[in-house]
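Weekend entry, working from home. Most of the wet-lab plans are on hold until the incubator is repaired, so I used the time to fold the two sequences that have been sitting in the queue since the last round of cloning. Logging both here for the record. First:
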Amino acid sequence: MKYLFLNKRISCILLFSFCGLKAQELTLINKTDDLIIVKNEKKEISINSHSKKEINEINKITINIADKLFRNINLFLEPTEKLNITIEKDQKFVYTGDQAIIHEYINETLTNKTFGKTNVYYNIEDKKNIEELKITSEMLLADILKKCKLSNILISPDDTDSVKRLKNYIKYQWLYTLFLTFDRSNLDQAFKKEAINYYFKKYIEPDITKYSCDYSLRYLVIKTLAKNKTLLQAELPIYPIVEHTDDDNVNKYLPQNCQKQYFQEKYNYLDHTNGHNKEYYKKVLIEKFNE
């Protein structure tokens, strides 16, 4: 009886403790004169003008003001952290709270920082100087890591889930712009082979067996690897084709959620240009990928 009572007491204490723990929390504050639509995975909420809403347990949201603004916001919060994002009248985003500086850098600066190097990469590649490319690209990566208070890009067993996601997001944003410059027909093939294999071996190969296109950035990287399979000095896993197309020779190297990204990218382009075949891609997304 004594031990039974003690076990029950411990269970009640633990239950109370876990109930008291708060999940990560994002507060969105709408200071515009417009209605804001926020999508979190498949959920959608509305924030009226000069109102605010709280959202829990989120990694990514889209923020939309009809005909004025569409933004993806990526989040890397620890379970007990709180972040506030204020959308000002001029559609400027202001970040306050836990990890505010890092989230502002990731969402407002990082893309411009990495894309700003593409012309530099093009010039280096045209000179076929692989060592200069390594130094230039990795100096940029080191600067990004410093801004995000990370010592390295490699995943450690001690990293929390949010840190792992942050490292992967940075890595593939950085690799995305590099691989964009590799994906051109006039690039010297010997140089392309050396470059692709260097970055693959050092940064991508450990991810290959569990590769995921949870971000569209990863889709372009794996697609470039698959398109240049003959240059790659390593094997890529082969996956069942979810829906056959003229691109099966590339898509067979893409995991299922990367194949979904293929159809999503096709649909987005055709929807934007009002292409005649967009309904086919929409149908595949709904029927084969539950989108």
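Second, folded right after the first finished:
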Amino acid sequence: MDKKQNHISIRINGKEKEDQEHLSSVDENVKEEMAAALDNTSETDSFKEGQKTGYDFEPPKIEVLKRNYKGKKSVFSMIPSMKRLLIAGTSAIVVGSLLGFIMLRVLSGVGVDENEEAGGTQNTDNPSAEETSAAANGTEASQGTVVQFDGYEPQVVQVGVYSTQAKAEERQAIFKDSGVHPYIWQRKDQYYLFAGVAMTDADIKNVEASIDSLGFDPEKDTYVKAWKVVGGEHETSEAEAAWVKEGMGYWEEAVPLFSQPDSNFSELKTKMEQWYQKKPESISKEAEALSGSIQSLLNLTEDEKWQQQHQMIRILHDYEKYLNK
């Protein structure tokens, strides 16, 4: 019995095909269509890939803008600006000062020119105050010279020394009640009371004995010692220096006369009065004080011996002030 071959029937377009050859042709057509579809897909992918990578330049980059935040400035970062500010301020001050000075000179010159035009000629008879002052200073400078003055070291009778002037004046009053007139001499922080002065040891002993005879204790109330006034250089006019030196020379001659009871002061007093009349018109205030003490001595009488001692010590003190001015 013949076996029937199995046929595969294929319906294409409503027609069933059973022929093997026809089926093969159909398979070939299917393969061609599938190959064509694959080719189309490959071309599409290639086109897309070409579009994707077909740029001739790189795409533009997008820049992100950032906001600048100002940081806090330190003191050191401000130094350059401060320096420039100081330089500018200093320059302004200097320039302003120069301009002010120039304007002042210009305005001063304008004022002088107007005065000269109004007067017709410059006034040379009446110098200005500045010229007068300059001339006076020049005269004083030309007159001033350094002169060497002598020092003195007489003997004195000391009747007390205190640390305050009030206590010295209390002690002075006690001696005044007895007729003695001690002189208060301040040197540094001490107040010395001197009742008499002499040039030799013998003369000062006579003065001390006269004081003791008034009822004072020589062991407690009186004390003899040397008292030195240092000489030295002093700047002054030549006329004043010569006058002061001559006057102190007369003072040195008068000291022994006042320390001796039988001495005659009248002849020396006449010489001193003549010397006093030659006093320069212009002298320093220290020389004027010395002049006043000498004049007070010349006005005393011979009976006022303790007042004479007082003035002789005062003259020496004024001379020390004169040298130390």
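Plan for Monday: verify the second prediction. Residues 79-119 form the longest helix (41 residues).
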